[in-house]
Amino acid sequence: PFATASVQVAASSSTIGAGTKIEFPGVTKFVTVRNEEHDDIADSKVRLAFASGGLHQPNFNYILINASSSFSADYRVSQVYIVSDTATQPKVSVIAGITTIKSARTPSGSWENTVGVDKTS
Questions:
Q1: CA distances (Å), 73 to each of 62, 77, 96, 99, in order?
Q2: CA dihedral sign of residues 14, 9, 84, 65
Q3: What does DSSP assign to residue 56?
Q4: Which residues of 35-46 are buried (b: 16+ CB within 10 A; e: fewer)?
Q5: Which H/E stretch holds residue 3?
Q6: pTM of the predicted model, to two decimals?
């Protein structure tokens, strides 16, 4: 298993690649990202993407997670990228199940330059 808590998320920026990168020690079986900010804090949504270029507009290749909410999926990835949806810097927790597949066995280690995932494609 993999778990990390209270990860400070970078504030939103138009700069590609300015998000917080979470690398896993192997390929995941599942990933859960929880936005730890409280509902009463305005503008504390976070963006979750599988490539750094997917974090930014106008392509919207990210998943938006509201305050006090989480996103879980059975995705096989070796890293994720997270950034705030606004100028705030919320904290997130990340939990993942790690397979025995080493990250180095994946072709690029991420979804970078994949059509529909990364803004640059």
A1: 14, 11, 10, 15
A2: positive
A3: S
A4: bbbeeeeeebbb
A5: strand 2-8
A6: 0.83
Q: Is the dihedral of CA 53, 39, 68, 35 positive or negative?
A: positive
pLDDT level of residue 19 (50, 70, 90 thresholds): confident
Banded pLDDT at 51 (limits 50, 70, 90): confident
Q: Which among 96, 115, 105, 92 is positioned nearest to 45, based on CA atoms?
A: 92
Cα 51 versus chain centre, distance: 8
Average pLDDT value for residue range 14-33 = 85
The three-class DSSP label of residue 104 is helix
